[in-house]
């Protein structure tokens, strides 16, 4: 029957024993949801929603007024009955957490604004949600999609900056200044920026003042963990340590806000700061120079190559790495 389709229907993403149910493709999302509730023994709730996996990591929401046929639903696909408008615990860069009731059927880019409104501050560009499914490696979620499309467990999420386009708006209030500084310091310490010893020392000292409740105590700081002071790709020597302590003793005390503002103003100017790397396939479509030789008049066939695309606020480049580790710059789009 062309009007019928059978779907494995789950009570959640963790349901390992879904029930195979026949659906009429003329059902809209609302009727299909009620039908699933009845057959799975789920108490009806206005907060129940249905998400259908169309292909691997591609999903469609079953909505009221939209027939299942329009979603390209086929036999043996998976449908999930999820609870909407539930409180999600958000973690922030400054260490605090809060619970916010979230509509999981809305794109993350809209929900980011909801979080800012909950914090009672003006929304800022560059923020998104991070999955905490692997707490040691939080994963940024694509803000074009809804949470369930890109994440399987959203009881807790991290809210932080992903894109480091730093402007004056971050200095408009204490929260945005402190959280942006924390995000930028974490990003800088990951390494990858071309910086001198003097710059590393300057950033480390500014960070101490930005984090200090009492600026007068900073000069007496004794570093225990250098990974919290310098980029991970920088080698700390005894000579460097001495140079750092000498500079620290000579430093001029600063309040937290001034130190954070200075740090942000300097770090945003680093060319490699805030970049992300993506594996990609690349074909150079630049026309070759005119050939005088008629035999070479026919252009060579364009070759598709595996490359790394590096994207950041001040830098967009395409590079290629040879098996021996040699890096070649193919294109600078900055």
What's the arrangement of secondary structure elements?
Layout: E1 4-10, E2 19-24, H1 29-40, E3 48-55, E4 58-61, E5 77-83, E6 86-92, E7 97-102, H2 108-119, E8 127-131, E9 139-140, H3 147-150, E10 156-161, H4 174-189, H5 197-211, H6 238-250, H7 256-267, E11 276-282, E12 305-311, E13 316-321, E14 327-332
Parallel strand pairs: 1-5, 6-10
Antiparallel strand pairs: 1-2, 3-4, 3-5, 6-7, 8-9, 8-10, 11-12, 12-13, 13-14
Structure description:
It is globular and about 80 Å long. Helix 4 crosses helix 7, helix 5 packs across helix 6 (238-250) and helix 5 runs antiparallel to helix 7. The protein is built from seven helices and 14 strands. The longest helix has 16 residues, at 174-189. 25% of the residues lie in helices and 25% in strands. The chain has helices at residues 29-40, 108-119, 147-150, 174-189, 197-211, 238-250, 256-267; strands at 4-10, 19-24, 48-55, 58-61, 77-83, 86-92, 97-102, 127-131, 139-140, 156-161, 276-282, 305-311, 316-321, 327-332. It starts with a strand and ends with a strand. The strands form three sheets. A five-stranded mixed sheet has the order 2-1-5-3-4, covered by helices on one side. The protein has 334 residues and is an alpha+beta fold.
What's the multimeric state?
single chain
The percent of residues in helical segments reads 25-40%
Biggest sheet strand line-up: 2-1-5-3-4
Structural class: alpha+beta
Q: Low-confidence segments, ≥5 residues, pLDDT <50?
A: none
In DSSP terms, counting alpha (H) and pi (I) runs of 4 or more, how many helices? Answer: 7
Mean pLDDT: 90
Radius of gyration: 26 Å
Q: How widely separated are the two ends? A: 56 Å
Morphology call = globular
Largest sheet geometry: 5 strands, mixed
Q: What amount of the residues lies in strands?
A: 25-35%
H and E order: EEHEEEEEHEEHEHHHHEEEE
């Amino acid at each position: 029957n062309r009007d019928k389709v059978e779907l494995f229907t789950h009570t959640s993403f963790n349901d390992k024993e879904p029930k195979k149910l026949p659906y009429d493709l003329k059902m809209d999302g609302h009727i299909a949801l009620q039908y699933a509730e009845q057959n799975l023994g789920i108490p009806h709730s206005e907060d129940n929603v249905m998400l259908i996996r169309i292909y691997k990591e591609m999903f469609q929401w079953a909505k009221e007024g939209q027939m299942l046929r329009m979603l390209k639903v086929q036999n043996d696909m998976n449908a999930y009955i999820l609870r909407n408008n539930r409180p999600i615990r958000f973690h922030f860069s400054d260490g605090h957490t809060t619970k916010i009731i979230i509509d999981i059927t809305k794109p993350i880019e809209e929900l980011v604004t909801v979080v800012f409104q909950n914090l009672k501050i003006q929304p800022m560009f560059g923020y998104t949600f991070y999955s905490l499914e692997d707490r040691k490696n939080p994963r940024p979620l694509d803000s074009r999609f809804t949470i369930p499309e890109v994440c399987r467990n959203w009881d807790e999420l991290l809210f932080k900056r992903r894109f480091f386009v730093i402007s004056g708006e971050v200095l408009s209030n204490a929260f945005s200044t402190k959280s942006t500084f924390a995000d930028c310091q974490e990003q800088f310490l990951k390494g990858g920026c071309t910086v001198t010893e003097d710059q590393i020392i300057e950033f480390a000292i500014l960070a101490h003042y930005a984090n200090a409740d009492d600026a007068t105590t900073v000069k007496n700081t004794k570093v225990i963990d250098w990974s919290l002071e310098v980029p991970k790709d920088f080698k700390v020597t005894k000579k460097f340590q001495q140079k750092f302590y000498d500079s620290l003793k000579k430093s001029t005390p600063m309040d937290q806000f001034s130190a954070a503002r200075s740090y942000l103003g300097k770090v945003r100017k680093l060319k490699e700061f805030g970049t992300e790397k993506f594996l990609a396939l690349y074909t150079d479509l630049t026309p070759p120079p005119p050939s005088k030789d008629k035999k070479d008049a026919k252009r060579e066939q364009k070759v598709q190559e595996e490359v790394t695309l590096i994207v950041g606020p001040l830098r967009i480049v395409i590079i290629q790495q040879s098996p021996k580790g040699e890096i070649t710059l193919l294109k600078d789009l900055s």
